[in-house]
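Homework help board

Subject: predicted structure for assignment chain

Our instructor gave us this sequence and asked us to write out the predicted structure in token form, then describe one feature. I got the tokens but I'm not sure how to describe them. Can anyone check?
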Amino acid sequence: MLTGSESEVADDANPMVRAGIDAAALKPAECDVTRAVDLPVDRVAIDYEGREHFPDAATLEAIAAEKSLYVTTPVRADGFDPLGDDSLLDRIPDRARRLLVAGHGAYLDESESSRAIAPRFGAAREAAPDAWIGTEGVERLALAAGGTQYELLSRSTDRDARALRAAGFDGEIAVYAPTVLTDDEDAVLDGVGAYVSRRRPVARALPDGGEGADGEGGDAPPTDATATGRTREVLSAAARDFALVGSPETVRERVEELREAGVDRVVGYPARGIDEFLS
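My token output:
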């Protein structure tokens, strides 16, 4: 067992700690989320990737016993609909907090996608007043619902955070960002190239609309480490706007910029796998 001083040295050597990231967001379809208890941060968020991947009650309870647990719950999805089927809420420990989101279309069926968001945000907030609110695509609804505003990192995050603070918003602002803790450009593109290519400003800038144009890629240029020319230039720049990439020290500088702009929490998703946050 490590002594206190030895533990601090070990933590200082961890790239996630050196990067200054507050919390980790894990995807249950990609990793064993029980490994969250070994992460060197107090807060862990479990993303939603469909009902079939949602962890069972025992798994969530085991994580909540060791960490401050946040669970993403799409208010339009069956199982989390506060105006309909909310049966999956029984799996979430009382001590955990919810991340209320509208729900990504990839994980919703046609009926779920057609459901109104505003009344569901309102009802869910009444049931979980300490919940964070996902803002992507529904910024005004999220702000109206109140609570911690949970945003995706973008080119405008610093400006938006400053504007919220200037307007008198005194609640928490949390930012989610795919993260790659290396300055190896091939590793960066393998980790977040496809993700950033789907962000609308990036998709428009890519030759032939890039992979983000239709979500399929087709004959569009590759968006990973094999990307070349103009595609590679666009993706490399976009990775710095829409993700946290670079050495841990470089990422820390970006995290500190976000804090200076008014961001309270920075949540990193390990785009190259959970091992990068555990090493």
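Reply (TA_rk): Your tokens look well-formed. For the description, you could write something like this. The first strand starts at residue 23 and ends at 26. That's the kind of observation they're looking for.
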